[in-house]
Write a structure and sequence with these properties.
The protein is an alpha/beta fold and 426 residues long. It is built from 17 helices and ten strands. It has a ten-stranded mixed β-sheet with strand order 6-5-4-3-2-1-7-8-9-10. The longest helix is centred in the C-terminal third of the chain and has 24 residues. The chain starts with 15 loop residues before the first strand and ends with a helix.
Length: 426
């Protein structure tokens, strides 16, 4: 997208706002690729409420708010704060008639049956970090003593009774993507795979990863050609790299820029400063405000000016890709304007695979292409304002709160439709 096409900054372009909170300064694992830094202190519920208020002052009319409590440590080490935040999200949802969705990604080692029940009863959407096969996982995700964590996490996942809204978050540094995907898919219905973020010289083998994506996508495509939708859905229904490209290519939509850091995404760290994203914590250039003074509007405009990278000009994949992560650029070059040639090659390749995926379906299985379009539209709609839900709450005239009505719609959609029809006709 040419730089001249980037519109002047306006809050109206930000429909989903993500508020990230480093609720735990510590972790019981010592993952080799972790970006975390030692936090200066613990946050309190008052700090978190002030942070959310700061963001709402800038974006009071977004369609959806995500409150991500994953942070740099293990969030389940601060369950007390986690559940206080979840309850505050419910209060905000009822007040503003918008979804304030509390989420975490946990390393899974503390995910006992009791903890799972607590998370689900409090409405916390959670994913589990699981890097594919046992060997791939234990290579990086180790306890403080160096022991691998896979076995205990697998046991905990198998103990989850209701997995429909639970996904695996897979970070890869090697290239055996198909086996990693299949290993995670056996345990959870949604799998999101992302490459390890560049830190301190760790490099990815672009050629090997591109070849591994060839194998993965060919497998998933062949399953879909035989009307098995489960594998494709697993990649579409989360934050998977290929899944996002496939959604954009299928729906023929482009992203405005490379990421929403400092525009629609903000992070609160233990030092009480507000950063442009959780991975930017303790990077001076990533500071966009603090709890005392709120979010600095000039910093938001600076992040907006970095939305488009002129080095992406002429790249066919730029509309679906948006350009490289700002923090990857900062870690590699010390600024937000660089391009990681390795990731650039990988993402151009993924874009080509997504185009081929759609083209093959169009030629041979138009019925599966129609399923793909419908599914992509459904996943994208998760980020839209739910007008029917809001209207139902208003029509109930205080009989139902937003959180109550949403639970009915999510768990008993037919009951919601009946209830909505009665409210409209009453």
């Amino acid at each position: 997208m040419p730089e001249s096409y980037i519109p002047t900054y306006s809050t109206k372009f930000v429909r989903t706002v993500t508020m990230c909170i480093h609720i735990s300064p510590v972790c019981n694992l010592n993952c080799k690729y972790c970006f975390k830094k030692q936090s200066e202190g613990d946050l309190t519920i008052a700090d978190v409420q002030r942070f959310i208020d700061c963001v709402l002052q800038v974006y009071p009319h977004a369609d959806r708010y995500i409150v991500d409590m994953s942070g740099a440590g293990e969030p389940l080490l601060r369950k007390d704060l986690l559940f206080k935040i979840a309850r505050y999200c419910k209060t905000l949802s009822d007040k503003h008639l918008r979804e304030f969705l509390p989420t975490i990604v946990t390393n899974g080692t503390l995910l006992t049956e009791q903890v799972v029940n607590e998370l689900q009863s409090e409405g916390v959407l959670f994913g589990v970090s699981l890097d594919g096969t046992r060997d791939a996982h234990n290579k990086n995700r180790v306890f403080q003593n160096g022991d691998g964590s896979y076995d205990i996490i697998e046991k905990n996942i198998r103990g989850i009774k209701h997995k429909d809204f639970v996904g695996a978050a897979l970070t890869y540094s090697g290239a055996d993507l198909l086996q990693s995907f299949l290993s995670a898919f056996k345990l959870l219905p949604t799998v999101s795979m992302k490459p390890v973020r560049y830190t301190d010289g760790n490099e990815l083998d672009a050629d090997a990863i591109c070849a591994s994506y060839d194998e993965l996508v060919e497998f998933v495509l062949n399953k879909l050609l035989n009307a098995d939708t489960s594998y494709t859905y697993a990649l579409l229904n989360g934050d998977d790299y290929f899944g996002k490209f496939l959604r954009r290519v299928t729906l023929n939509v482009n992203v405005l820029g490379r990421c929403d850091a400092g525009i629609g995404r903000f992070a609160l760290a233990g030092d009480k400063k507000i950063y442009c994203c959780p991975a930017a914590a303790h990077i001076d250039g990533g500071i966009v405000g603090d709890l005392e003074n709120g979010i600095n509007q000039s910093k938001i405009r600076l992040m907006w000016s970095k939305l488009y990278n002129t080095m992406c000009g002429g790249c066919e994949a730029s509309g679906a890709c948006g350009g490289e992560c700002k923090i990857v650029s900062y870690n590699r070059y010390g600024n937000f304007d660089g391009i990681d040639s390795i990731m650039c090659k990988i993402k151009r390749h993924i874009y080509g695979l997504a185009k081929r995926f759609v083209a093959v379906l169009a030629d041979t299985r138009p019925d599966m292409l129609e399923w793909l379009k419908e599914t992509c539209s459904k996943v994208e709609s998760y980020y839209d304002k739910d007008d029917a839900l809001i209207n139902a709450v208003k029509l109930s005239q205080g009989q139902y709160k937003y959180s109550e009505m949403k639970k009915i719609k999510d768990t008993k959609p037919e009951l919601f439709r009946e209830l909505y029809a009665k409210l409209i006709n009453s």
